[in-house]
Amino acid sequence: MRSTLPDPSFLADDPQEFFAAHIEDWGCIGGVEDDGELIAFGVLGFGAQVPADENFGRLIGLSPDRLATVGQPDGVAVLGQYRGKGLQKLLLRWRLDQARAKGCRDILSTCEPRNRVSLKNMLSFGMRVVKFDYLFGGLPRVVLHKDTAGDAAVDMARAAVVPVTPDSLSQAFARGEVGVELAEGGLLMAPTAN
Ligand SMILES: CC(C)(COP(=O)(O)OP(=O)(O)OC[C@H]1O[C@@H](n2cnc3c(N)ncnc32)[C@H](O)[C@@H]1OP(=O)(O)O)[C@@H](O)C(=O)NCCC(=O)NCCS
């Protein structure tokens, strides 16, 4: 799997225990099979069940009560020959449904900023790119967030394309902008109204 990636750091190197913990305690994992072979999976953690330091809500400073209702899609992969057929979207939709059924308010995920396929898919579900950080042992990542109770309004009239480099992204977040759409040359970012 890793050898098929444009850059191996697109996928965090999650140990076996990470997957076992999600199945047993932290959330769930959705899988897609073709003729008995696992061809795609998507991991989902629940804020009330993952260890506190693994709760993505902490990355954006959510209050303690909201940490408990985080739903976090945390890893997805599709075997090479099955890509481009909508499986990531299917697994994301399934995980968002699971999170909704569990009463999750804040949906949070992370992505390598140059992973345009994954970013595009998450943005298409209304998630916004809200932060850049080095996570999982120093890997560059953007944090995506959706507040299902209602996201802050954005001023699309003032939206501009920002290159997906650590400096440019960090400066845009410091200006109060969020990423709303992929665009030629980067990410379309718009200031939030509040
Ligand atoms: C990223 C990944 C999960 C995407 O899975 P996928 O099942 O191929 O994605 P989907 O088919 O659901 O993607 C659908 C959208 O992405 C687009 N897309 C898919 N593959 C693409 C490609 N190679 N280049 C450009 N766009 C592509 C499709 O056109 C589609 O967009 P549309 O709905 O606007 O037409 C898959 O490529 C993968 O496993 N990559 C390695 C692991 C990884 O990067 N995981 C993500 C960690 S955040």
Automatic annotation (TrEMBL):
One of its GO terms (molecular function) is acyltransferase activity. Signal peptide: none annotated. Pfam families: Acetyltransf_1. Residues 1-161 form the N-acetyltransferase domain. InterPro entries: Acyl_CoA_acyltransferase, GNAT_dom. Keywords: Acyltransferase, Transferase. Its EC number is 2.3.1.-. The keyword Ion transport does not apply. It comes from the Bacteria. This is GNAT family N-acetyltransferase. It comes from Lacibacterium aquatile.
